[in-house]
Amino acid sequence: MKQHGFALITVLIVLAVLMVLLTAHFLTTSIELATTRATTDSVTGFYAAEAGLNVRGELIRAVFQGYNRPAGASPAAADPCQVGNLGSGNFACQNFSINNRTVVTYVVEDPRNNDPNDSARMLTIPPGERFAGLNAIQYRYSVFSKALPPNDDRPEAILEMVFRSRLVPLFQFAAFYNKDLEILPGPDMTLNGRVHTNGDLYLNSNATLSITGDITVSERPGGTGGTLFRGRKDGQINPICAGFVRVDDGNPATPDPAIDCDGRRAVPQSELDAWNGRIETGLETLTVPPQETFDIAGFYWREADLRVALDLRAGLANARVIVPNREVLGGVVTENVALTSTLNSCLAATQPAQRYYSIRSSHPGLVGRLPALSTTAVRAVEYSNSLRNHRQNATDNQRTSHTLMLEVDTRALLNCLHQHRTVLFNDSPSVERRLDDTSGGGLVWYFTVLGPHANDAASGYGARLRNSSRLSATVPGAPAINGLTVVSDQAIYLQGDFNLDGPQRGHWRPAAVMADTVHILSNNWSKTAEEWVGGGWGANRRASATTVNAAFLAATNSTGGQEGTGGQGGAYSGGLENYPWFHENWDSIPFNYQGSFVSLERPCRWGAQWSWPNTPTGTGSPRYEAPTRNWGYDTRFNNVANLPPLSPRFVYLIQERFVRDFSR
Fold it and tell me: What are the backbone dihedrals phi and psi of residue 551, each rounded to the nearest 5 degrees, phi first?
């Protein structure tokens, strides 16, 4: 019996030990499962909170891209985002549902952002950073984000990100494209300055193309592109890869090494690393101004010191020149009667002035009629329909054969603004209201044509600037302007020299022309050239040497009519070398240009695809002959004080600090 009792006790002890072990194992497993679950929840909460940081950062960037500053009030630091402490505007508390978490976010602005001295926020991007050496405006913000699990007000993660938003003017690049960029010159070409594209970059030459600045290639929005190709995008010239393409690598021991040519090929970044960081591809997309920035009622319209329109809208007995009101209600542009009357009283800078333009008796598609121009006086702003546009390949009975044009005498308009500044500046957003206005860097003019075809893919509308060799008034006592930016949603034609340097370069002013397309007419343009209907060149449209000093922002064609590799082998866009449109026989005649080429999209108002020089039109006439291109980046734009008024900019964010808060 004693043995049986001992055995029973032994069994009970073993069972007790097993129970203890099983209990310990159960507790250990439960703790491990709870720990794993907590870790998983913490990681999930962390990533959800991090996503909240990124969302708020992008929202801040979007505000800047619309040419605004984030505004509002942050919630107080004590118990932020509780009832009664939500903040306001761009800094207010916002909740997002991410990974089944409620993510609570808010923004705190660095108090230095509101320093009235804007120069304190100007910086030159330091060496070692991307875009080193460029001028930028920098703002700092802190974004806070916490992730709350379902049915629990205890946060799984609390994060803070301090970032800088940098606004970089586009005109600091020799060429900046928001689309595929092709640089394919025939003769030798040296491009001094930086090159960037949001898309793909194609480099080729029939001789030698040399680029002395940094090259950056970013992806398009959506993640495609970002590739540098050696060779042509189009398939109209053989060989598809030729010549030499040399890029400065910053190493005096190996000056300007060449990128190898072997058919059209995508050059990998591993090969481009030999250029010591001077060529970078596959970068994140740079955010640029959207198209509506330049449209009627958009940013430049609202910020313009003067708006002028050729009004061809239905219901008018006669077409007319008007000054529209800055405010556009319900999409309808209305006339400022007082300003229109004053503008139409202003005469050309020199009387009697010679007109190269005229009024044709009929014009297909014209609503109403263009009243005859005065035979005794030329006004500062007039109109015409006489320019025969061979680039549209249209016959005389087609609407786009002749351009319906707003005609602007630049120096006369400056005289008019000075003499009538108390009236003509009345609808300007600036409080200075004088020629030497400093708001935004200087004067901004917006020219447009209002009519039934204004939004057509081939509108046939434009504005022409002449008498622009000096951007200054001629009347005594008029101050020098600080700069001039001319904007249009239609084509802009520059006739003759524009913004010459003068002695000791003292006449030059920061200037920009932003339009759907930019067209060049030489100093030799005449009434004969204006109305030439076709036939042999002869002396009808023989160009003469002409100089333009201005930054350009305009739309450009795309090879194959599309961006990306789908356009490879298609009809040639004309490339950077054909950015401005020519209308004359420039053979062996120089077009001298200093500035910056920016292109953000394909043309909206200019329907003609680029065509090879001397290609016959439907009338059998040549379209144009290309000039000798003496072109270069204007290094004066490297000084922020020399940038044109309201220079467009791209925006990018730099993360300065990332913190996880474990104290709450």
Answer: -75, 145
205 residue type, one letter: S
Q: Which amino acid is at 315?
A: G
Q: Are 242 and 221 in contact (CB under 8 A)?
A: no
For residue 607, which of 509, 469, 472, 461 has the smallest C-alpha distance?
461
Q: Parallel, antiparallel, or unpaired for β 265-267 and 228-230? A: antiparallel
Residue 603 has which token pair? Answer: 């043309």
Q: What backbone phi and psi angles, to 5 degrees, belong to 638? A: -70, -20
Locate 211 and state its tokens. 């680029």
Over pLDDT 90: what percentage of the chain? Answer: 68
| Rg from Cα positions in the chain | 32
> 367-401 burial, b if ≥16 CB within 10 A, otherwise e?
ebbbeebeeeebbbbbbbbbbbbbbbbbeeeebbb
Helix (H, G, I), strand (E, B) or coil at 256: coil
Q: How far apart are CA 43 and CA 55, in angstroms?
A: 18
* 28-76: pLDDT as tens digits: 666 665 555 555 656 889 999 999 999 998 898 888 866 678 999 999 9
d(CA 349, CA 412): 4
Whether 479 contacts 436, CB under 8 Å = yes
**CA separation, residue 294 to residues 286, 299, 513 (Å):** 18, 6, 12
pTM: 0.88
The DSSP output letter for 477 is T
Domain ranges of the chain: 2-165, 175-283, 341-648
Q: How confident is the model at residue 25 (pLDDT cuts 50, 70, 90)?
A: low
Closest CA to 309 of 515, 409, 447: 447
